[in-house]
Specification:
- The complex is a heterodimer.
- The longest helix of chain A is centred in the middle third of the chain and has 35 residues.
- In chain A, helix 4 packs across helix 10, helix 5 packs across helix 10 and helix 9 runs antiparallel to helix 10.
- The two termini of chain A are 34 Å apart.
- Chain A is α+β, with helices and mostly antiparallel strands.
- In chain A, strands 7, 8, 9, 11, 15, 16, 18 and 19 form an 8-stranded mixed β-sheet that branches. A 7-stranded mixed β-sheet of chain A has the order 1-2-3-4-5-13-12, sandwiched between helices.
- Chain B is an alpha+beta fold.
- In chain B, 25% of the residues lie in helices and 41% in strands.
- In chain B, strands 1, 2, 6, 7 and 8 form a 5-stranded antiparallel β-sheet that branches. In chain B, strands 3-5-4 form a 3-stranded antiparallel β-sheet.
- In chain B, strand 1 and strand 2 form a beta hairpin.
- The mean pLDDT of chain B is 95.
- The chains are: A alpha+beta, B alpha+beta.
- At the A-B interface, helix 7, helix 9, helix 13 and helix 15 of A face strand 1, helix 2 and strand 6 of B.
Chain lengths: 476, 138
């Protein structure tokens, strides 16, 4: 991106001035290097979002922003229904509520190492992953509706996990406003055997070790020490979520025309929040969020079972669960006034600062844990939300590394078997269902997550607490 | 035309492109391109047939509807496809997809396609025929 087209606010905040039909300015949070490496299309997409009715304060891009579908990936925008605000399918994407969940194990690296290979083999065998994998649960249409209303709470009621898990999930594992009647039969049929499956692509299950602590106090509140072993899963709402996206991109692209919305790009597929189409999408998308939360909860249960079989002394407790493709109703203070806004985060993690009553007790004074996934060879990060992030970005942060190589390039240059061998030499065990899939997801195919996290920290969107490194990775 | 289908590069996902002397043939080949992202399609035997009917106000959207209907069908019926036949009448498409039940190992499953998107979506005339393309979200 051409830096001359931006106003530098400080070393980590860049403004796209409000011009033409933009209702608000654009704002990019990134280091000079990250912002100059961003595609010009990111700027264009941030500007397109800034033109949408009811947008508040600014159209935002996180440090890992790249060219997306309508919204940039890494795009954040909040809309007020009272000011004609819209809801956009492009601001959520196809993998509704894709996210990361991290669990503590109560064990250290030293304790885990003797049986690590066995653990990974069992996780690989018992947690369904990869193209066409099937979950152990089969859901009838009425059970699917219950799951869409109940989210992770539904899963716990059905024996997948414990009540305490729910406290450590955004909205306690279940968003309000889900409307199963707005979800198509096709979407529900796709979910019939997919609950409790990891998926493929960049989704993973990792056994990780805490390699570094940056903030002792926050780490203590989270119950994390150096050398502790944690497990992270990255996955989303499976076939049901994808089908909701597919169904509503058409419906909302049509609605945008009907309501004469100033849409530059039909991928922004939007409708007024206060319209039949907008309400239906919100209801379906919220059901998709609950589906993703139920999915991660069922996987948590499987992980727990496997862990206890291999290490009877393990105690799997939730650290937190975040979603990075959502639109949620949140209260934010804009120009001194409290407003109820529809906050879209497309490839961005909610990062609420301290003091929010919605956070579990342990985190209320430090801020919300923000889980940022890296690659299977590098590192992932745990951060916490900040006051400044609330003011600057509706409490939002980055979501991951972003690709450096296209999938085609990665497959041409790298081979799955060699990637596995190279990682094994670094002491990282990788199990996957596809060698090509592993080549596409090789660490070399991604940008450096550390730089993205550093920019997030420096821009004060969220503060670094810990770095975790993979010991083992299960890929779809 | 020499090339029937191909994939093209995209930053985060992957583009698919089908060529043909007619729009119908380009649509069939675009479907093959999409399945080639997910599987080794040379391993998929065209022994079972399914039919798909979709409609859309323009040819671009018809391509997306076609590809997404196939993805849903594959997901629901656990089927994979390698050969396709398409007929377009006005805004309606009737398609036949030939394949077999999914066998993850034998079909060389690589990655799931979540959806065919409107991104870089294009159905147009080129020298000697038509091209039909879009980016798929993986």
């Amino acid at each position: 991106m051409d830096l001359k087209s931006l106003n530098k606010i400080n070393d980590y905040v860049w403004e796209i001035p409000k011009t033409g039909e933009m209702r608000v300015p654009g704002r990019i949070f990134a280091s000079e290097r990250l912002v100059s490496d961003m595609d010009e299309k990111v700027r264009e997409q941030v500007m397109n979002v800034a033109m949408l009715p009811g947008i508040q304060t600014a159209s935002l891009a996180m440090p890992d922003a790249h060219w997306g579908y309508g919204f940039p990936i890494g795009g954040v925008a909040a809309f007020d229904p009272k000011e004609g605000g819209i809801i956009s399918m492009g601001g959520v994407g196809f993998d509704i509520s894709c996210g990361v969940r991290t669990m503590k194990t109560g064990m250290t690296r030293e304790e885990i190492m003797p049986n690590l290979a066995k653990l990974v083999d069992e996780l690989f065998r018992r947690v369904p992953a990869g193209v066409g994998s099937e979950g152990l649960i089969r859901l009838t249409p009425s059970q699917i509706d219950e799951m869409l209303l109940g989210g992770a709470a539904w899963a716990v009621q059905n024996g997948y996990g414990v009540e305490e898990d729910l406290e450590y999930i955004e909205e306690h594992g279940r968003v309000e406003g889900a409307d199963p009647s707005a979800v198509s039969e096709t979407a529900k049929k796709r979910q019939y055997r997919e609950t409790g499956t990891l998926g493929s692509g960049n989704h993973y299950l990792e056994v990780q070790v805490v390699a570094e602590i940056y903030d002792e106090q926050a780490a203590q509140a989270m119950g994390l020490k150096k050398e502790d072993v944690v497990i992270s899963i990255h996955c989303g709402s499976r076939g049901l979520g994808h089908q909701i996206g597919t169904d509503y991109i058409r419906a909302l692209a049509d609605a945008a025309q009907r309501y004469n919305l100033p849409i530059r790009d039909r991928e922004l597929a939007s409708a007024p929040i206060d319209s039949e189409e907008g309400r239906r999408y919100f209801g379906a998308m919220s059901a998709g969020i609950n589906c993703a939360l139920a999915n991660r909860q069922v996987i948590t249960h499987l992980v727990r079972e496997v862990f206890l079989d291999v290490y009877p002394e393990a105690r799997i407790k939730m650290l937190y669960d975040i979603s990075h493709n959502t639109c949620k109703v949140e209260t934010h203070t804009i120009d001194g006034k409290k407003k109820r806004l529809y906050v879209h985060r497309k490839g961005s993690t909610r990062a609420w600062g301290p003091g929010r009553m919605e956070l579990p007790m342990e985190y209320r004074n430090i801020g919300q844990p923000v889980l940022i996934g890296g690659t299977m060879g590098t590192a992932s990060y745990i951060l916490i939300g900040t006051e400044e992030g609330m003011r600057q970005a509706f409490g939002s942060a980055c979501h991951g590394a972003g690709r450096a190589m296209s999938r085609t390039q990665a497959k041409k240059r790298l081979h799955g078997r060699e990637v596995i061998k190279a990682l094994a030499e670094q002491g990282i065990i990788v199990r996957g269902h596809s060698y090509s899939g592993i080549a596409e997801e090789a660490p070399e195919a991604y940008k450096d997550v550390t730089e993205v996290v550093e920019a997030t920290h420096q821009a004060r969107l969220a503060r670094k607490v810990a770095k975790v490194k993979p010991l083992a990775c299960v890929k779809g | 035309m020499d090339i029937q289908y191909e994939t093209f590069e995209h930053e985060a996902d992957i583009g698919i492109r089908g060529f043909g002397e007619t729009i119908e043939e380009a649509f069939s080949n675009a479907a093959r391109a999409m399945y080639s992202v997910m599987f080794d399609i040379s391993s998929i035997r065209p022994v079972v047939e399914r039919t798909v009917t979709v409609a859309a106000p323009d040819t671009d959207l018809l391509l997306i509807e076609w590809l997404n209907a196939l993805l849903a069908l594959s997901d629901i019926e656990r089927m994979v496809f390698s050969e396709f036949e398409v007929k377009i009448y006005g805004g309606r498409l009737q398609g036949r997809a030939m394949g077999e039940p999914l066998d993850r190992k034998r079909h060389g499953a690589v990655v799931e396609v979540k959806a065919a998107t409107l991104h870089m979506l294009k159905v147009e005339r080129i020298d000697g025929g038509y091209v039909a393309q879009c980016v798929v979200d993986v």
